[in-house]
Backbone:
């Protein structure tokens, strides 16, 4: 659909992730490494779940369309579960690494708090997940045509960009909440994150009724943002502090 | 597999699948939602000669336009001036494919991105060729005869509009009326129809055509650019047109001995093989070329018995010239070879020539004999021509037509004979069904097909029964072939008592007409072809466009068909085995200097499934027909044909929907807004992070 749509959708889908990367991650090499390793973990989880799906499709009748559709749903649910498993695995890995890093670091104590690692890991998952969702569509948006020949909605590109944005931010928030839950040994948090992830996946099945899928996903994203804010040390008091600081900084 | 799954997750993430769940992810599934590829398109391509480029060109990344189906000539206002969403891709039916409409669209090339022609009904007449074909390479130049040059006396193709020789800088494609055209029309009616003069609603249905041609300007430029590449395998930008002529002597000569043959006198019987249309790959040419060469093939078969029993004094050469449409490629090559001792005979050996022109569309019961008035001013030539006319006219005794000479001051129609006259004043006649201008209403166009010749078969016949059915057209061509064969026999000095035994076979003629104009994949053509060539037989008629001269010894389908048919009709079946057929020189009585040996499939006997293949000994040879201009390196030659065809990378067409500019700008605006907002918010949160996320440190600080 031409360059305007390409850049528009790219900015929508990857703008926030890009700005988060520039302002919070790019300057610290350790954070960059954790980000990329997180992306890699997400990739491995996708690889394993695609292997399972591939074997399942090859082992069954390729002509039976409803069976293949159900296999895809099953494969996707399996992928969601595997992503959370790999998030947990990454948490364990980072905890182990943190002790080693603390030992060799010049400062006292670990160079990165668990909260920072949680945020970076979540963002890594989110960026890679967003990239995989969106890059294919983006490359097709460069051509002169738009979706709609076979009855699909012509808002396909915008809505996939919006979904990708939501997904990226959701992975970031899930990372924060998940790691915090593991740190405090609150195992019900893991279950809740898994359930919310599955809920978002099933909402995406409602496409192309975009109103029914995007609005609830954004509502969930806002709720998760609030939860992540509180679990990473924020509070209403801090927000009021912010405002009063701002008023205090005004010249008299 | 990985990407497949990710692609599938993407599908499910953003779009729920309904009925059309495509499992074979051959390419990107998102692309499959957007584009519909059109596979059965025939493009108009670019040809170049010494001075011009003709044909069509698209931009390198394709030309996109909103589809508009043209309903009448007045409807042109919409794409040319009134329509609000230029550029347009104009879809028109074949009846609207006229010069005035195409010229109007050519002049408005900023608003018309391309043209698509849908082949439907034939218009009453249409000829995209020029009014004076091969004007500059025939014999009638200013020096030869001032009054006859440039068709001053007779305009041979008065209906010609010259569309094939125009240059278009937007792509022009041709589609047949089939499922793909239905999809396009459906898309147009769903999205692009104007309702009550109100504005069009986006998204609109659009089409993109890719037909970028590499060569520009003229042949000299593109040949220079081709040879400038210094790598080991030079990249050609254009290819010379050409092919092979099919030649057969009744008494063959040693094929390695070139030049003059003492005491040999040859009568040449010539016909043209090729034809063209505006869309080159759609060339038919029923009246233009098929009528002529089928008649000559039938005459060759009729002469076989008589010339073997009692060989005439003079030799007869059956010459089928290829590439004649493009400034006489084949015949100019043969004359050049004869003059330079590169052919088995030379011009001194040529006694006379009889050429079969267009003979199938008669306006009465007469056929006409055209001769050249300028060479006939010489008495010797005049006497020879008169003798040939006498032989021809006496050959129609007992047949249902007669041969009439044309007016003495009228020049020759466009024919290969003109190239021989350019070299030497040889006596000759061109046989045609028209007295002055041609009868062919569809000269060198796509509509010159079986229907134009009234080739109709009863509807309840199977294809094999149609092959055997003798049509009226076949009967009339058979008579012409009989007359031609008898005249050739007499002209070659054959015994007059044998003449009445010479008869062409109507069954052969009708089978040839069926194979060349309806379907080439029939049992008879299969029987005469070589086993390794049987794939060239298709359920359609063959292509009559000459094509490019290939560097390997490969000819196009038409050349092979004519070669093998002529071999079958004039050669003899031998008892050689397949391995002997490949190396016949080891046998005492066979010689590859005189003959060529072809292994053909043969018929399938009624009670078995194996073909009875055999070896044919024939005097038929393929002679290279590439314009001498390319051998001489003279790419601006005025003497010889300099036609080349441009090369291209790919040619394709696809349709899709385009969104409104507003939606695109909205998307871009939202994207930029999201990016800036996120940059601001992130910067703000980062600078205030210690205030916002301070609960970790507070307990430490609050200790004191």
Residues:
């Amino acid at each position: 659909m031409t360059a305007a749509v390409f850049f528009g959708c790219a900015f929508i889908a990857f703008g926030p992730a890009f700005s988060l990367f520039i302002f919070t991650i790019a300057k610290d090499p350790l954070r960059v490494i954790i980000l990329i390793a997180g992306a890699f973990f997400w990739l491995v989880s996708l690889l394993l779940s695609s292997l399972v799906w591939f074997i399942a499709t090859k082992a069954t009748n390729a002509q039976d369309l409803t069976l293949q559709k159900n296999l895809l749903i099953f494969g996707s649910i399996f992928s969601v579960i595997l992503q959370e498993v790999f998030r947990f695995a990454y948490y364990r890995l980072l905890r182990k690494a943190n002790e080693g890093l603390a030992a060799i670091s010049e400062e006292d104590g670990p160079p990165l708090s668990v909260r920072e690692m949680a945020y970076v890991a979540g963002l890594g998952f989110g960026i890679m997940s967003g990239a995989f969702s969106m890059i294919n569509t983006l490359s097709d948006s460069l051509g002169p045509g738009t979706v709609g020949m076979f009855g699909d909605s012509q808002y396909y590109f915008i809505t996939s960009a919006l979904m990708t944005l939501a997904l990226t931010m959701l992975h970031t928030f899930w990372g924060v909440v998940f790691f915090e839950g593991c740190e405090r040994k609150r195992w019900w948090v893991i279950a809740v994150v898994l359930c919310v992830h599955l809920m978002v996946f099933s909402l995406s099945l409602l496409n192309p009724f975009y109103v029914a899928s995007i609005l609830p996903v954004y509502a969930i994203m806002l709720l998760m943002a609030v939860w992540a804010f509180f679990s990473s040390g924020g509070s209403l008091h801090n927000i009021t502090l912010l405002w009063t600081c701002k008023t205090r900084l005004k010249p008299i | 597999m990985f990407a497949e799954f990710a692609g599938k997750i993407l599908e499910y993430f953003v779009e729920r699948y309904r009925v059309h769940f495509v499992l074979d992810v051959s390419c990107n599934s998102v692309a499959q939602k957007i584009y519909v590829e059109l596979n059965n398109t025939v493009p108009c391509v670019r040809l170049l000669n010494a001075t011009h480029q003709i044909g069509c060109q698209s931009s390198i990344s394709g030309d996109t336009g909103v589809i508009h189906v043209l309903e009448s000539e007045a409807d042109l206002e919409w794409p040319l001036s009134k329509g609000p969403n230029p550029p347009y891709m104009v879809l028109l039916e074949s009846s609207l494919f006229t010069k005035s409409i195409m010229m109007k669209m050519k002049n408005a090339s900023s608003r018309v991105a391309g043209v698509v022609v849908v082949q439907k009904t034939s218009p009453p007449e249409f000829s995209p060729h020029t009014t004076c074909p091969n004007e500059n390479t025939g014999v009638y130049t200013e020096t030869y005869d001032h009054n006859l040059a440039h068709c001053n006396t007779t305009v041979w193709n008065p209906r010609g509009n010259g569309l094939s020789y125009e240059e278009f800088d937007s792509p022009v494609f041709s589609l047949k009326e089939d499922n793909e055209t239905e999809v396009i029309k459906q898309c147009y009616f769903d999205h692009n129809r104007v309702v009550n003069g109100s504005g069009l609603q986006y998204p609109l249905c659009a089409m993109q055509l890719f037909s970028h041609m590499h060569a520009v300007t003229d042949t000299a430029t593109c040949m220079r650019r081709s040879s400038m590449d210094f790598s080991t395998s030079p990249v050609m930008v254009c290819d010379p047109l050409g092919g092979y002529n099919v030649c057969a002597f009744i008494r063959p000569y040693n094929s390695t001995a070139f030049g003059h043959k003492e005491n040999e006198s040859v009568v040449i019987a010539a016909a043209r093989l090729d034809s063209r249309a505006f869309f080159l790959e759609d060339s038919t040419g029923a009246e233009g070329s098929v009528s002529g060469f089928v008649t000559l093939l039938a005459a060759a078969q009729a002469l076989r018995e008589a010339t073997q029993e009692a060989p005439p004094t003079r030799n007869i050469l059956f010459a089928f010239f290829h590439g004649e449409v493009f400034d006489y490629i084949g015949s100019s090559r043969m004359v050049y070879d004869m003059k330079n001792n590169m052919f088995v005979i030379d011009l001194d050996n040529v006694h006379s020539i009889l050429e079969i022109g267009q003979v199938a569309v008669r306006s009465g019961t007469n056929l006409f004999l055209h001769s050249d008035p300028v060479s006939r001013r010489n008495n010797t030539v005049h006497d020879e021509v008169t003798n040939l006319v006498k032989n021809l006219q006496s050959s129609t005794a007992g047949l249902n037509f007669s041969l009439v000479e044309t007016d003495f001051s009228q020049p020759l129609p466009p024919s290969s004979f003109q190239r021989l006259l350019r070299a030497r004043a040889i006596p000759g006649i061109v046989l045609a069904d028209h007295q002055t201008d041609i009868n062919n209403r569809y000269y060198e166009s796509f509509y010159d097909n079986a229907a134009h010749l009234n080739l109709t078969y009863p509807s309840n016949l199977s294809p094999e029964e149609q092959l055997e059915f003798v049509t009226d057209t076949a009967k009339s061509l058979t008579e012409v072939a009989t007359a031609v064969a008898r005249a050739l026999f007499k002209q070659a000095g054959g015994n007059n008592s044998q003449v009445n035994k010479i008869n062409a076979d109507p069954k052969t003629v009708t089978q040839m007409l069926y194979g060349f104009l309806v379907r080439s994949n029939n049992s008879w053509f299969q029987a005469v072809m070589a086993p390794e060539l049987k794939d060239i037989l298709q359920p359609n008629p063959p292509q009559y466009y000459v094509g490019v001269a290939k560097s390997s010894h490969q000819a196009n389908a038409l050349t092979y068909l004519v070669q093998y048919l002529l071999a079958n009709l004039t050669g003899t079946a031998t008892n050689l085995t397949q391995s002997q057929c490949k190396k016949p020189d080891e046998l005492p009585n066979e010689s590859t200097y005189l003959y060529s040996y072809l292994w053909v499939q043969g018929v399938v006997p009624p009670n078995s499934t194996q073909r009875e293949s055999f070896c044919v000994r024939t005097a038929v040879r393929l002679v290279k027909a590439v314009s001498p201009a390319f051998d001489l390196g003279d790419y601006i030659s005025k003497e010889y044909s300099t036609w080349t065809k441009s090369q291209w990378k790919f040619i394709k067409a696809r349709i899709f929907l385009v969104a409104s500019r507003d939606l695109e700008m909205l998307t871009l605006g939202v994207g930029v807004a999201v990016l800036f907002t996120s940059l601001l918010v992130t910067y703000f949160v980062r600078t205030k992070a210690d205030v916002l996320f301070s609960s970790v440190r507070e307990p430490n600080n609050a200790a004191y």
Q: What stands out?
A: Residues 12-27, 696-704 of chain B have pLDDT under 50 and may be disordered. Residues 140 and 348 of chain B are 22 Å apart (CA to CA). Chain B touches chain A through 62 residues (CB under 8 Å).
